[in-house]
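The data are passed on as follows:
___
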Amino acid sequence: MSIKLKIDGHDLIAQEGETILTVAKRAGIEIPTLCHHEELKPFSSCFICVVEVEGMKRLLPSCSTVAADGMIISTNSERVRCSRKVCVELLLSDHVGDCRGPCQVNCPAGIDIPGFISLLARKNEEDAIRLIKDALPFPASLGRICPRPCEQQCKRICTDEAVSICFLKRYIADVDLKRSEPYVPSTGGSTGKKVAVVGAGPAGLTAAFYLRKCGHDVVVFDNHAEPGGMLRYGIPAYRLPRDILAKEIDIIRKMGVSIQCKKSLGRNFTLKSLADEYDAVFLAIGAQQASDMRVEGEKEGGTIPGIAFLDDVACGKKVWIGDDVVIVGGGNTAIDAARTSLRLGAKKVTILYRRTRKEMPANDFEIEAALHEGVKMEFLAAPVGLARTADGIKLTCLRMELGAPDASGRRSPVSIKGSEFILKPSAVISAIGQSVDTACMDFEDNHLKLTKWNTLNVNPDTFETSQKGIFAGGDCSSGADIAVTAIASGRKAATAIDQYLKDEKVTGEGKHYLHLMSEKSEDVPEEVLQMLREKADAKQIMPELDPSMRKKNFEEVETGFTYEQAAREAERCLSCGCRSYSSCTLHELAVKYEANPERLAGKKRSFFIDESHPQIRYEGHKCIMCGSCIRICSEVKGLDALGFIGRGFSATVGPMMEKPWAKSTCDGCLKCVPLCPTGAISLKVTAAEESIARMQKGLDASKVILEDKREESKKGELGHVKNV
């Protein structure tokens, strides 16, 4: 008997006994579910599949509601979406686990950190190189100069020390660069579209790298004699050797990107001329204009801007600074200027900073390096006047104390009355900040808009400016920031530019839901802390040149890990993150319905892992109690290896009599694995295996690996668990 009904405005025919979900699926209408499977009877445990039926007061689960004649059904109304969102948030509210390792989440470049470290630990350097360099154009450079936001979130800091992620990235990249033919990422087929990139710094070159991978023709223009931007002209060679940077840029050239140097915006071409000639333009001109100290006599006294000082040294120009140098500032530029001054022969180098060391924005490891080399630091001190006298420079300073917090949250320095003191240095280098030089841009012709901070006003998601077809990223839109952030903006902008060139809706990379086990290290579950204590292992120390020798030249200070050190350090990685991330239905729904689990936050599940089975890992803290694994084992296999244990909130899923999985009646068929919507039941897959599968077969690595394991299982290549 045929039944007529309407779903989302479509007139459909159902057969007697068919559910709404079955009819909708046949018509190509998607209804999400977390507990339904064709081999199983409807269970209605998740209530994600609810629909609205005209005339019914409550929403009905489509998986178990039989279609009736004359039904008018809505599968995606506001009421339905709201209900599904609440269901997802409830499921996530007690979920314990990391979608991605905290290190990867905190990496602006989004590198698959557990993946490449796992590959390295398994001596698979070839795939580790590919994994990194398909996602990042400057691994060797960043491995030297990045302030390591990834390491600040490493779970190991809860009990010992973070994994040396940056040094491992550097090791892999250096191995590749030393080969006769370093790895060059592949590029897509030509699209016939042309993009102009202005600025060959980290943001511009990264955008060029990704745009070329998409198949677009890219030309990069830069006003310097060599490409690299702040990587070449703002970071001293003892931190980033020029040959390393040059080799990484050469790989971008080999991909087909044209880089034209000594070409300046505003002098050799205008923004309008680029917009007329190219299909899109990406501005990455940086923030290379030094900020003034704003003290009396600064202009007449002849202070040296820190950025200009480092630029001149990088270009090989002769710079006279004398024996006694004072640097004003507390950021990385100040530290670089101080250490460079020592290498130019200064006998005494002092950094003046108006707050304490705790508030210094410079990387702590860079501060330590400067102190080891003999740089003096004068905290809670600030210049108020500068004059050139017959005896030289007279720098008038005041002692400071910390008052109330400023807009950034740092305590504001307040001068102490009567604390004046005088310094008589041979040179004063100002390193208190940088801004964007916008004089090169023809604003009236192109209608570009600036923010109140004099940076280019861009859409934060797409990096579009106020002029169609013109995008901007890096320091010129964010203000002076670290290189890895500029690299991230170049990647994100390239995604948006690619969408624009394809006449797609320009949305950028979009927002991704990422569940974390804990936001702060002090909130990590005790069970995890105990595991970390049991795996405590001292980190490898990066070999360095002796401080007494290195300050006499510009040779690289950190000499790099040996193979043995890299292998030992890679073994320290815990491979945090979910191996089922790419196939997790709960994650997919969290993104779709913009879930906020904190809205319904409450007690969390207990952290529990059973790895006794040779093929399967069970993580009880990820289970949503949908029952699919229990039912497939009982209804289809007839084994009853699994069941619900306990009652109420503390209930869990596991083998009968709370045995380890290896002692259950499981025969290793793996049917339960693809049914699990959260990865609570998953294959024993390493981060390395997942990453290789994703590189070779696309994003849905878990399904690829599962099929491979099933084939092995059928052939008897994987040992099944025998009945005990």
Notes: The radius of gyration is 30 Å. The longest strand covers residues 392-405. The chain has five domains: 2-76, 102-183+514-570, 194-287+447-501, 292-435, 604-714. The chain is about 30% helix and 15% strand.
